[in-house]
Amino acid sequence: MTDVIRADLDWVDSFPTQQVAGYDVRPGRTMPFGATLVSGGVNFSIYSSAAKAVTLVLFKQGEPEPVAELPIPDEFRIGSVWSMTVFNLDYEGIEYGYRVYGPSEVDFRDRFDHTQILADPYARAFSGRNEWGQEPDRSNIYPYRSRLTFEDFDWEGDQPLRIPSVDLVIYELHVRGFTRDPSSGVAQPGTYAGLIEKIPYLKELGVNCVELMPVFEFDEFENSRINAETGERLYNFWGYSTVGFFAPKAGYAATGKFGMQRDEFKNLVKEFHKAGIEVVLDVVFNHTAEGNEYGPTIHFRGLDNRTYYMLTPEGFYYNFSGTGNTLNCNSPIVREYVLSCLRFWASEYHVDGFRFDLAAILGRGPDGAPLENPPLLESMAFDPVLTDCLLIAEAWDAGGLYQVGSFPNYRRWSEWNGKYRDTVRKWIKGDEGVVGDLATRLVGSPDLYWARGACSSINFITCHDGFNLADMVSYNDKHNEANGEHNNDGANDNNSWNCGAEGPTDDPEILRTRTRQMKNAMVLLLTSQGVPMILAGDEVARTQHGNNNAYCHDSELTWMDWNLVDENQEMLRFVSNMIAFRKAHPSLREGHHPHGGDPVGCGYPDVSWHGIRAWQPDWSPQSRLIAMMRNGHNIEGDDNHVYVASNTHWEDHRLELPGLPDGMRWHLFADTAAEAPADVAVPGREPVLADQHGISVGARSSVVLVGRAVAPS
Amino acid sequence: MSFTTTLTRSGNTVIITLVGELDATTAVAFRQEVDRAAEGDVETLVLDMKDLTYLSSAGLRGLVFAKQKMSDGVKIVLVKASDEVERTIRMVGFHHSVVFSDHVPG
């Protein structure tokens, strides 16, 4: 047996030096910030650039008044950091916060208020909103309470999956909305535990990455109100307003009432990973739940207002987020805060990446001006802990900064490709003057991402913002009356077409057109180069009744209706077969943009364009027909050819097909004009086309062919 | 708050009987008992919970500790865990590491 050199270091710093308010304490360690369990006690550390004193406030869990207030002795302060180790705390039963005293000389940029108890910005768990929708006690002097946590989860060897970006198919979902509806049939609806029960569904659909809408602790009662017209309570359902950046939302955990949301969320990640599905978090670092001058004081505002927020010269909040305040992301302090938060989620929760809400804000300087080389974005791009994490920017903000294609990227960042969405939507509804732009989008938007590669383009047609797919083909205009703002909220440029009637209809012709249009969208999305993203529910044509901004509804309007899995089986089959087709054809998802060369030596350019006549695309502004041929290898490494024809004209067209090498035949994978089940085949089992020279593409329809060797009979 | 444990050993099976309330303040006692159980050759660790009146999240963490303390091959059996405890264990994914049972295995 090998001797192991051991040392029991427990005794280091583990004895109290004095008492404060009856508690044994000693000077703490400045790092890490937050509350950390140490031998015999808890180390509390908090930073404020201008405070003159800090008091640690302890509550017994759920009690209205503090059980103790411990002023941190000034000799415990190092620099601007107050830290103190407190011994013999019942770490499970306490909640903690701080009173922070401002300097006697008041600076107009500060908002110190020691009458308020502040949460710890580094708290890893919060109580106060443990159960979703439970009416808060407005008289609570400390509504969002910091909790102590443990780091003893058994990961059983789990690691982030590191699926190559080229292979990703992302699925955007809302944790609560996905299983809250009784039709979900899960034991714990609307929770992390409930979501686990739907992993087999996602696996069967074929997606391999879920992007979870915000799961950082937020308050569903923020701006909660009753819609005067409907009497319905409106919530902050989406959660794009963070209270606790280091804490998973307790109200999404079935075990939140036991304070075990961290374990439940970790278990969710572990189960996703077991199924081969990555977990990407939609994170909101552009602003916080503290709102504008009239908003609540939660932490930053009372701790160090001028450090954490972008302020106007007069000391008011800049509002580039459209929600009241803007986090001062490129100040060195906040930069470090954001980085440590991301590292924490990557290492402690094993998440596979992040999508940054209104990320253009993360490139603005303290005065709001866009920076050439924003230190925060650069730091993230090169951070050693985040190396394997997806970094996806929503490359615009509410202050008018639109950076799709020009987001400071360090060849590392990818982007929600808003231009892809707009172009493909216009094309699908039959707009003129789009064909050239469409072709650019289909091959991975080289105009935007040539230097970075095609996977920097997260292609999407729908996301939580705006119409979902069914509504995109059912409504010309938004119908947001239920949001209680007289239909003034939500985007007006939807690029949608209702196919002949606004909203629900019995007209079978219109219904057929809508189904076809949805399939057309999925054909383009899943044969485009770049990383496709599907909005949850689109695969079964879930409607939101024309609401294109349903952020405030915790109701059937936003909940996934699982009955649709049976009712819209046709659509579900089409989408899952399209995903399988994408997987079977690496040429559709290579990392580099095609450029018309023949890198695999198959005798054909990697991409070519066709029209009514093969090799003769119609690039005129009036063109509503384009066919794309992709040539390369299939998943077995054999030569193969994929031909995608999209006709947005209201008439059928017969297309001459490009010839194939000897021994190969065109096979029909998908035809959106055909009635199911002829609308889509099983990849690899496509029927051979009887006519090898041409194919008829129906009005507003798409066709997908695969050219390969005829299988030996 | 009262919490007591008794440990009995029969062959390669160790039975810890938990009585009373297992929470953050009493979890230490539980951990020490698990430490004792881990001494010697153990194939099965039985936690008899029939007289456990309360199990807090810190108590649940004690189970995680037990799992990590025991070597990989050790089977952990929870006897007469309440419905709520069993549900919670399932929701946080710990059920992969334990076996639920209605009686102390003989």
TrEMBL record, chain A:
InterPro entries: GH, GH13_cat_dom, Glyco_hydro_13_N, Glyco_hydro_b, Glycogen_debranch_GlgX, Ig-like_fold, Ig_E-set, ISOA1-3-like_C
CDD domains: AmyAc_Glg_debranch, E_set_GDE_N
Coiled coil: none
Source organism of the structure: Actinoplanes sandaracinus
Annotated family: Belongs to the glycosyl hydrolase 13 family.
UniProt region (Disordered), positions on chain: 481-508
This protein's UniProt keywords: Glycosidase, Hydrolase, Transit peptide
Protein name, entry field: Glycogen debranching protein GlgX
One Pfam entry name: ISOA1-3_C
Domain Glycosyl hydrolase family 13 catalytic: 140-582
TrEMBL record, chain B:
Family under the similarity heading: Belongs to the anti-sigma-factor antagonist family.
Alphabetical list of SUPFAM superfamilies matching this protein: SpoIIaa-like
Record-linked Pfam families: STAS
PROSITE patterns: STAS
Domain STAS: residue ranges: 3-106
UniProt organism field: Actinoplanes sandaracinus
Transmembrane segments: none
InterPro entries in the record: Anti-sigma_ant, STAS_dom, STAS_dom_sf
Domain of life of the source: Bacteria
Record Gene3D superfamilies: STAS domain (3.30.750.24)
UniProt protein name: Anti-sigma factor antagonist
